[in-house]
TrEMBL record:
<dbReference type="GO" id="GO:0006952">
    <property type="term" value="P:defense response"/>
</dbReference>
<feature type="domain" description="MmgE/PrpD N-terminal">
    <location>
        <begin position="9"/>
        <end position="151"/>
    </location>
</feature>
<dbReference type="GO" id="GO:0005739">
    <property type="term" value="C:mitochondrion"/>
</dbReference>
<comment type="similarity">
    <text>Belongs to the PrpD family.</text>
</comment>
<dbReference type="Pfam" id="PF03972">
    <property type="entry name" value="MmgE_PrpD_N"/>
</dbReference>
<dbReference type="InterPro" id="IPR045336">
    <property type="entry name" value="MmgE_PrpD_N"/>
</dbReference>
<dbReference type="GO" id="GO:0047613">
    <property type="term" value="F:aconitate decarboxylase activity"/>
</dbReference>
<dbReference type="InterPro" id="IPR005656">
    <property type="entry name" value="MmgE_PrpD"/>
</dbReference>
<dbReference type="InterPro" id="IPR036148">
    <property type="entry name" value="MmgE/PrpD_sf"/>
</dbReference>
<dbReference type="InterPro" id="IPR042183">
    <property type="entry name" value="MmgE/PrpD_sf_1"/>
</dbReference>
<protein>
    <submittedName>
        <fullName>IRG1 decarboxylase</fullName>
    </submittedName>
</protein>
Amino acid sequence: FPSQTVTGNFAKVIHGLNANQLTDQVIQRSKRMILDTLGVGLLGTSTEVCHKVAQYSKIYSSDLSSTIWGHLDFRLPPLYAAFVNGVAVHSMDFDDTWHPATHPSGAVLPAVIALSEAFPQKKKISGLDLLLAFNVGIEVQGRLLHFSREARNIPRRY
């Protein structure tokens, strides 16, 4: 028997990541990915599907709230803000992608930003912490894709 499960090893690697491991190249690429995703997301806020999910999500409220991109006066609970902003990013279908097919930033950035906004003022995270969280999200996606049989079959299906 292996001394550690795949899940345990996965969790150990992810939990062990820290900002000191972000190289200059990773930081520069991450900033570019974030800027591209924000641009596509802002453009996507004008789509019909984004308007529909925003209208639907207005029924939810909580003490914590996060911004809906492009609408400074429209805030939702972090879960729904991440959902609406993620739909905005994906609705244009210009967000980044990699092989096997996935859109890493559109799934990660809206969640990271929504959560970071929900922190109390005295516990706000730094830009470097945001970059680390973003990269951890990207790393999780990449590792899950690596283990996915479904993802490995994508090139044969299309």
